[in-house]
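pinned: reference chain
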Amino acid sequence: MAFLIFFTLVILVYAATNYYIFIRGLQAFQTGSGFKHIYIVTFWILASTYVAGRILENIWLSHLSHILVWTGSFWLGAMLYFFLVVVFIDLIRLINHFFPFFPSFITANMEKTRWLVFLLIVGSTTLTLVAGAINARNPVVRKVDIHIQKEPPGGPAKLRAVLMSDIHLGTIIANGHLRHIIEKVNKLEPEVIFIAGDILDEDLAPVIRQNTGKILKQLSAPLGVFGIMGNHEHIGGAEAALNYLEQHGIQMIRDSIIKVGDLFYLAGREDRDKARFSGHPRQSLAKILQGADSSYPLILMDHQPFYLEKAAELGVDLQLSGHTHHGQMWPLNYITRAMYTISYGYGKINGMHAYVSNGVGTWGPPVRVGNRPEIVLLNLSFEEIKQ
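pinned: its structure tokens
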């Protein structure tokens, strides 16, 4: 029932937003214009493709569902920028209504002005999405040096680790893109790989159909490839996701802790939203960490970067997270900055190191505007330096 209510609200907001954009766009066309009918039909076809594609994926996974999801995903990006621009224009119009300031060359022929503004908005949005799509397909490698003031029993050690998050494997992030990501990761020759959740994009069917797991198995690190559950693994079905990922080379850590190579402890939390989808809460972090030897370096993976202060209080040396996408598309990064202590990148919380990755994939629109997808190379050193 909770999911049904949530889904209904999302559809209502989606429909209302599209209707608002549609009505404002319709004002650009003169009465009787042949283009007006083309606009009406094209708009509502595009607006319905994402919902239709996601529903069809669950009924009949096919080339048609693939095309609909891809088209609809780009429409989500277009919808965001159309909405922002239309709201901005309406605010300007409102101000002009009370305090007229539009010059005469704008007001003299409003029909022509509306048409030119319409073309400008559509053209600039299209260029933004194209550039953002190219950007999203080309992840950058970011290098981060982190020193942890603890030593494993064998003495000071250095570790070359790779962090990824939010791949969102499925219809949009398919085999070709994954192959490109894995080639970049393996070239870095990591000793260990951390994947901080949202490896899958909800529905497992496209992943199975494409045999994506065969490519996922190519990830290589002598100390292991470790992953945790994100909210999207739970949305699509946690147990099926877990089984598939473990069958294809990723050791999933669920509310537990392990020792890696006698070098450090690695804890992995269930996603914060687990209870919403399963009805069962995740374990407390304090209980998970009970099995750790505090003399070893302690690394925690938690998909959503909430409660960083609590992790620091419990003795975690380094927390690795994802989830935020740093907004993925400007200006949504301002929202994630307001929501999280660290929305993106490296920070230090009460002596604990933290890195929040903006992700290597995309969710929804296959587009990134204002930030680059990333693979993070962590150069870790474990050495207690006396002050």
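why pinned: The chain has a mean pLDDT of 94. The longest helix spans residues 63-98.
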